[in-house]
Write a structure and sequence with these properties.
heterodimer, A: alpha+beta, Rossmann fold, 9 helices, 24% helix, B: MetI-like fold, two-stranded antiparallel ribbon, 13 helices
């Protein structure tokens, strides 16, 4: 199995689609469906994020992978082997728990050695592996400390080392950054990704934080009320959301309700009650004339100017209602005559660049014909 | 003026100290004083330790009571036997109490309180009544023997009452709540995720119990054992009522010295030595514990 896995490595060094297969997995608790019939295929060496709000079923799915919950129906295969009936202590899967669950009565070393001891390795082999792990997470100096003597970031690295020590086929991360403060978070995200990539383990993580998922994961599954709504790379999900939910969950978006007016092979126009002029989309979409759709365009794809743009479509006039200054850019909230609040980012490439426009000014917002997405669901 | 009056917080702090002084320190000093005096046919039945004679205060410490304790094998045996009975009872209470506390701590929160209530509830009836009830259960024609005879498991009544076995049963029964309570308080706080982490790392459930749950409940085990062991060493009523003449415990010796022999000095010396026997291990244990905490903090 190991060999065939390697042969199928693609150009990005990621293995075939079916290293971890989740087939029709469903989990019910006393009649409440936490996870609807779910199918997922995860490649070898991938960092895969389950992203969603609280109660969306992402943690339940993760616990099914770890063996802490038994799926009501469906199968889980890892490297061709069925996992369903294996208890957690027999699965080649290790988990880094939310808030780490380090053993408080053991030192850092003993925590990392715990899993290795269960395998009945020799003392020498255990010590070598522990050293290796401590070096990987750069905690050699703190080997004799107890968990409560460590900072949050250090505890996290111990937890990571402990879950990697046995060389699992699959690493599970449950809200890996949940217990850290914001500043440490962005630093640890990259550090954890580095450590995981160094060890080459396949990883499934759960998070509610879209930024974290986008920073750390190679692919993301967006979940909502027990269902997977979209699977894709971070840029796919951001640039081409397939549903209103996906468009709104990740980043901010200007979303217009409307109907297809003209449906051609190479372009589509959409009329929306929120906009005076029609929306022009420079490519065909699968739909029909008169179909109810939504059109979304991200604030950073929108131009804002005092002069009327030359293009015929995809523009609107309004007044600046609010300006939110973020340093690197400002977000203008422009009130259209229809009452719609249009968000447009303005990059502050020059100092005081956004000073030219201020509250109450009449401005034009516009966007290119391929900058938005048409969403039918 | 303000300086002369103590701060109100002293009033609060001094309450427990005053309590200790009046109900522990002073009685202790009185007992200590009596233990150094001689037996006398008088009222009270002992000689004074401090005497005013020829315009001088003379302090006469009579050590014969203590020397007698260590030369007379009765006392030495009574001490050893008390410690043995208390230690075995404590171990039995731990073996019975730990699983009880463990199961209760695993129950859903609503049933947990009911179960703890059931553990504590018997303590609401008088201690003496419960010990007498055991006489009724264990005596030759009591409930237990009747039941075993009816089930034809035995043909003759077992002699349990008035034996050390009955004393063990009584002590374990009476002190079990004191074992269960601290263990439960400890176990109920355990984070289930630690066990999950242990399973996740390859530990089978029993292995996870011995490497995670048991060491983490160490404080509860120690507290429970102390709460059972210390009063059990000095136990008088249970061995007297259930244990029969063969159960030699220091509490009974003390009672005999005091009430039968009216030898107050000897009885006091017995009590003081018993106190030291219990205090020294506790102090050593506290010292060790303190050092461990200090080492952890540095």
């Amino acid at each position: 199995m190991e060999h065939s896995g390697n042969r199928e490595l693609d150009a990005h060094g990621k293995g075939s689609e079916d290293y971890l297969r989740i087939v029709d997995v469903r989990k019910e608790f006393d009649g409440f469906v936490a996870v609807e019939d779910t199918n997922l295929s995860i490649r070898k060496g991938e960092i895969f994020a389950l992203l969603g709000g609280s109660g969306c079923g992402k943690s339940t799915l993760l616990r099914c992978l770890g063996g802490f919950e038994k799926p009501t129906s469906g199968k889980i295969y890892l490297d061709g082997q069925e996992m369903n009936d294996l208890p957690p202590y027999e699965r080649p899967i290790n988990m880094m728990f939310q808030s780490y669950a380090l053993f408080p009565h053991m030192t850092v070393e003993q925590n990392i050695a715990f899993g290795l001891k269960q395998d009945g390795l020799s003392k020498q082999a255990i010590n070598m592996r522990v050293e290796e792990m401590l070096a990987l997470v750069q905690l050699g100096k703190l080997a004799r400390r107890k968990p409560h003597q460590l900072s949050g970031g250090q505890q996290q690295r111990v937890a990571l080392a402990r879950s990697l020590a046995k060389g699992p086929k699959l690493l599970l991360l449950d809200e890996p950054m949940g217990a850290l403060d914001k500043k440490l978070r962005s630093q640890m995200q990259l550090e954890v990704v580095n450590i995981i990539e160094t060890s080459g383990v396949t990883c499934v993580m759960v998070t509610h934080d879209q930024e974290e998922a986008m920073t750390m994961a190679t692919r993301i599954a967006l979940m909502d009320s027990g269902r997977i709504r979209q699977v894709g790379t971070p840029d796919e999900i951001y640039e081409s959301p397939t549903s209103r939910f996906a468009a709104e969950f990740i980043g901010s978006v200007n979303l217009f309700q409307g109907a297809i007016e003209e449906d051609q092979a190479d372009y589509v126009t959409i009329v929306s009650p929120s906009l005076e002029s029609a929306i022009y989309v420079g490519h065909g979409v699968s739909g029909f004339e008169g179909q109810e759709v939504a059109f979304g365009v991200r604030p950073e794809k929108v131009q804002i100017s005092k002069e009327e743009p030359e293009q015929q479509y995809n523009k609107a006039k309004g007044t600046i209602e609010e300006i939110a200054y973020f340093g690197s850019h400002s977000v203008f909230h422009v009130r259209l005559p229809s009452g719609f609040r249009f968000m447009a980012n303005f990059a502050n490439q020059q100092r005081w660049a956004s000073e030219g426009m201020t509250w109450g000014d009449e401005v034009w917002v516009s966007w290119g014909e391929n900058e938005g997405v048409v969403l039918s669901t | 003026m303000k300086k002369l009056l103590p701060h109100p917080r002293w009033a609060v702090i001094s309450v427990p100290y005053a309590w200790m002084l009046v109900f522990f320190a002073i009685p202790f000093l009185i007992v200590l004083k009596i233990s150094f005096s001689k037996l006398a046919i008088a009222m009270p039945p002992y000689t004074p330790v401090l005497e005013l004679a020829d315009n001088a205060v003379s302090l006469r410490l009579n050590l014969s009571n203590y020397i007698g304790l260590f030369t007379d094998t009765l006392y030495v045996q009574a001490y050893l036997s008390s410690i043995k009975i208390a230690a075995i009872s404590t171990l039995l209470a731990l073996l019975i109490g730990y699983p009880m506390a463990y199961v209760i701590a695993k129950l859903p929160p609503s049933t947990r309180n009911i179960a703890m209530m059931l553990v504590i509830l018997p303590s609401w009836t008088s201690f003496l009544i419960r010990v007498y009830a055991w006489i009724g259960i264990l005596k030759p024609n009591g409930l237990l023997n009747d039941l075993l005879m009816k089930l034809r498991l035995i043909s003759e009544p077992l002699q349990i009452s008035n034996t050390p076995i009955a004393a063990y049963i009584g002590i374990v029964y009476c002190y079990l709540p004191f074992m269960v309570l601290p263990l439960y308080t400890n176990l109920v706080k355990h984070d289930n995720r630690l066990l999950e982490a242990a399973y996740d790392l390859g530990a089978k459930p029993w292995k996870a119990f011995f490497s995670i749950t048991l060491p983490m409940s160490k404080a509860g085990i120690i507290a429970g054992c102390m709460l059972v062991m210390i009063p059990a060493v000095g136990e008088y009523v249970i061995p007297e009522l259930l244990g029969g003449p063969d159960t030699l415990m220091i509490g009974r010796v003390l009672w005999n010295e005091f009430f039968n022999n009216r030898d107050w000095p000897k009885a006091s010396a017995v009590a003081i030595v018993m106190l030291l026997l219990l205090m020294i291990p506790i102090l050593i244990f506290n010292r060790v514990q303190q050092r461990e905490i200090e080492r952890r903090l540095t």
